[in-house]
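Tokens in:
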């Protein structure tokens, strides 16, 4: 069962129903209420739209298979439009009025950080789909996350630059929550990889032209590569301006653009761009003996069967991982009691998701290491693995 609320209309309505449950005692069990707040509309809709579609699709599949602990799942969703204040309002409603058992969501770092005090105070498990390391560092007892962090993205990019013998880097970063956080992480970890930041520029989420900032970077003596911490439409504009200005150095983007939407927006300018991302984008290109292959191929096949070829993105994968991690934790705990589920999430070990193999601990509420990232390059409008 899926209940959705538009941030514009603020009217809740049931738009889906439990699938395949018999009209018996099982169907009469109280549902497990899964709360979600996602940026389905607005500037971050490329994140929230596949996340919501994934939750709806797999909750229907779980219900069709008999539910969880014999109970149907009910998805109660609110569209935040990526606005932090709206997110706080809706999460408060999820907690106080909807009385959800878990919260899955937070498409962006900014909206996630805005609601953390609420879920911590309510002591309800929260699995975020946002990329910023600040979500789980420092560790917060009730907060977990599925995607690789921005700090990991910096490390993976710098590792690749090391292999190419490139050490002098220009940064052009978005000033939104994710871009700001990743910028800080890249500056912090650069010395670990002998990387020198020789230029450092920013742009606002509403900017439509970054030529001035990129011109300054291009004129920097000794520049060997450019890295763009950011997500949304900004990186596509950066990529186009980068090509227009005739840079002769590589451009790296973050995992915040790991969807076909970025390639569509950037067009031919995206050719040769590198970024760290989930194996999901190259699912069929993985070796047959890769232990992650069955998971990413299975998710990709299922998603695209419903939403069309080429529609899969890593962002929907984050939602799949979050839902399946919650399912595994409830099954391990044998209950939906919040504290027991929280403890089971923290004890997850060897869980294979679209982001990689997850092993949580009291000190790590994400459970991924740098090997979970794959370095990809865009060639002929598609993703290829960088060897």
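Residues out:
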């Amino acid at each position: 069962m899926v209940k959705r609320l538009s941030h514009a209309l603020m009217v809740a309505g049931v738009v889906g129903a439990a699938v395949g449950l018999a009209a018996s005692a099982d169907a009469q069990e109280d549902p497990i209420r899964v709360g979600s707040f996602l940026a389905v509309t607005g500037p971050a809709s490329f994140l929230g739209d596949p996340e919501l579609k994934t939750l709806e699709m797999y909750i229907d599949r779980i219900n069709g298979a008999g539910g969880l602990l014999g109970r149907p799942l009910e998805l109660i969703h609110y569209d935040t439009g990526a606005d932090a204040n709206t997110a706080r309002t809706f999460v408060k409603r999820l907690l106080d009025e909807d009385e959800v058992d878990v919260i899955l969501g937070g498409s962006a770092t900014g909206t996630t950080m805005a609601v953390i005090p609420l879920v911590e105070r309510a002591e309800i498990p929260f699995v975020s789909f946002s990329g910023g390391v600040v979500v789980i560092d420092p560790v917060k007892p009730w907060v977990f996350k599925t995607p690789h962090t921005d700090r990991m993205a910096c490390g993976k990019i710098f590792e690749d630059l090391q292999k190419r013998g490139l050490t002098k880097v220009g940064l052009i970063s978005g000033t939104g929550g994710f871009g700001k956080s990743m910028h800080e992480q890249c500056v912090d970890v650069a010395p670990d990889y002998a990387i020198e930041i020789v230029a450092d520029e920013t742009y606002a989420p509403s900017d439509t032209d970054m030529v001035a900032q990129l011109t300054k970077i291009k004129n920097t003596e000794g520049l060997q590569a450019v890295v763009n911490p950011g997500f949304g439409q900004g990186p596509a504009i950066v990529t186009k301006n980068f090509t227009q200005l005739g840079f002769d150095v590589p451009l790296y983007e973050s995992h915040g653009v790991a969807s076909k939407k970025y390639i569509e927006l950037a067009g031919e300018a995206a050719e040769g761009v590198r970024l760290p991302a989930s194996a999901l984008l190259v699912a069929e290109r993985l070796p047959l003996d890769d232990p992650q292959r069955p998971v990413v191929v299975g998710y990709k096949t299922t998603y695209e069967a419903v939403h069309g070829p080429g529609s899969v993105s890593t962002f929907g994968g984050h939602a799949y991982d979050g839902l399946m991690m919650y399912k595994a934790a409830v099954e391990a705990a044998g209950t939906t009691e919040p504290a027991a589920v929280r403890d089971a999430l923290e004890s997850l070990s060897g869980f294979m998701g679209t982001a990689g193999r997850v092993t949580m601990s009291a000190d790590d509420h994400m459970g991924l290491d740098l090997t979970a990232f794959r370095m990809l390059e865009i060639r002929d409008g598609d993703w290829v693995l960088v060897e």
